Structure prediction request, 218 residues.
Amino acid sequence: MGLTKTEIFNDEQNQLATLLKAMAHPARIAILQRILISNTCICGDLVEELGLAQATISQHLKELKTAGIIQGTIEGVSICYCINPVTWKLLENQLGAFLGAYKGETKCC
Amino acid sequence: MGLTKTEIFNDEQNQLATLLKAMAHPARIAILQRILISNTCICGDLVEELGLAQATISQHLKELKTAGIIQGTIEGVSICYCINPVTWKLLENQLGAFLGAYKGETKCC
DNA sequence: GCTATTAATCGTAATATTGCAATACAATAT
DNA sequence: ATATTGTATTGCAATATTACGATTAATAGC
Prediction:
């Protein structure tokens, strides 16, 4: 089928999966790292810096945007992207709770 | 194409992307949560608890295992899965550094 | 009006993912 | 030996993703 059965999972699981999926690509991680470094926003510099075509970069940006991880505003001819603080905070909280739930040491496998 | 150009990204980006991708599915998040809760390992209880076929669960477990996030040992007839502490720690560090790199407040978009 | 410049979208090809039924395998029990 | 139980693998269909060239907006400057 190739169709994830989202209806059998709860909202938290689906939301976290969606956010992780949006980040689960080296190009999108690279894009986010670039935005994080030059805290001020960027635009199509990415096309030169990463070795991907403009259409491809634009697509990755769109995915990050629809996931709510970044936001963009028009800045003259180019477009300025930056982190969406709300989603970023949410991601930190959700992931923190998730990863932090593991208390090692209980010997098992 | 449909083929990620891993060669143009660095190891850190590729590794993080691979780990995130392994977790970026609600079923796999549910499986991990289940393992985290019953800190002691589990097996095919998942097939009953999640509403997915046995073959599908087995496939998701395999993905988590090949990504190094979980590990399994034979426990009589069934197989006992649990978190791989090394990878989990790595994930915490990598993600912590990544998410923590965002210092908000610098007004932008 | 035109013309660059920048980014989004469309169309397409190659590949990957998701899910399941059917089957195979491996360990134990009878 | 054979049956049972628990898990893995295979094969397949439906869908999603990745990447790119070509095209299409949208804006700025002339």
Chain A touches chain B through 50 residues (CB under 8 Å). Chain A has one domain: 11-93. Chain A has a mean pLDDT of 91. The CA atoms of residues 4 and 55 of chain A lie 27 Å apart.
